Amino acid sequence: MTVEILDTDSAERVDVFETDDGLRLSIGRWGAPQRGSVILLHGGGQTRHAWGASAARLADAGWEALALDLRGHGDSDWSSGGDYALSRMARDVEGIARTLPGRPVIVGASMGGMTALYALGRMNTELAHALVLVDVVPRMEGSGVRRIVQFMQAHPNGFATLEEAADAVAAYRGQGRERPADLAGLRKNLRQRADGRWYWHWDPRILQPRDAQAMADYMGLFEAARAIRAPTLLVRGQRSDVVSAKGVAEFLELVPHAEFVDVAGAGHMVAGDDNDAFSAAIIDFLARHPLPGEAPRAR
After folding, report:
1. Which end of the chain has fewer CB atoms within 10 angstroms, the N or the C?
2. Quick count: other Cβ atoms within 10 Å of Cβ 177?
């Protein structure tokens, strides 16, 4: 059963989806599916709110945008058994896609992109009309991945203030990325506990050593990429330390029909670093790859 909760602070409508293993996942919805639906999958340690600006842009362009809090993140349930393998999260996404009237477009960043790639390449190549991967390829740079993990592990005791958390994020994003004056968006990614400190709202077990199934899922991403037949767009942050030019070239060999956009000045957090360029790239891609029954639109 899906329960709708209205968020009075925005145009977002929040639904709850129950997975086949009994977890309740929160899904933010924007707009109406005049042209179809777009499922947005965030990166590790993020929440659906990372997509707020892009979801609003997609809604304005005639799409229904569905931003999911992946299991263990945001307002979604945590897995009691710590099951956060890509294959498990991909089954969650497949279940949500099957509730929609037509095949959706799936957009995934970082961990969400690996989940999307697994879902389409290893489970059901007909699941989505199109695929957009955001700063993620099967072979990522170890140094960049380690920097992400180090950031996620760096504050086990939380933050005394939201300002302190914002400074940590700005330091991770690098030179020239000042912390925003308005911390309302950051507040949605943390929770204040009884001790008064602010903690990231995700299950720490996401970072636990991978079991055999999880490792097999990651290694399977190369084969998954070869199986992709849907229109595909890879969006990279030009300053990314996670996806290199070599990684992009390898991906384009695995998926020869894929398109590629390099967003100048952006790092791994592409949508947050330059949302205008990021959203424009996706909307342009979707205009050139319409769903059945819709005529292609001009750029």
Report:
1. N
2. 15
Determine the Cα–Cα distance for residues 178 and 170; give it in Å rounded to an integer.
Answer: 6
Residue 297 pLDDT exceeds 80 = no
* Residue whose C-alpha is closest to residue 91's, from 22, 160, 169: 22
pLDDT given at position 175: 59
Q: Nearest 5 degrees, angle CA 43-CA 48-CA 53?
A: 100
| pLDDT for residue 186 | 83
- Which pTM was predicted? 0.91
Q: Which amino acid is at 121?
A: G
What is d(CA 119, CA 151) in angstroms, rounded to the nearest whole number?
27
Q: What is the CA radius of gyration of the chain?
A: 18
Nearest to 154 by CA among 138, 172, 180, 139: 172
- Would you state the structure tokens that stand for residue 287, as one six-digit string? 């205009």
What does the block give as tokens for 122? 């290893």
- Residue 137 predicted with pLDDT over 80: yes
Q: Name residue 6's amino acid.
A: L
SS3 of residue 37 by DSSP: strand
Q: In CATH, what number does 4-158+192-288 get?
A: 3.40.50.1820
Q: Is residue 129's pLDDT more than 90?
A: yes
H-type alpha helices, 205-269: 212-219, 221-227, 245-254
| pLDDT at residue number 285 | 97
Q: What is the mean pLDDT of the chain?
A: 90
The pair phi, psi for residue 71, each rounded to 5°, is: -50, 135
* pLDDT exceeds 80 at position 10: no
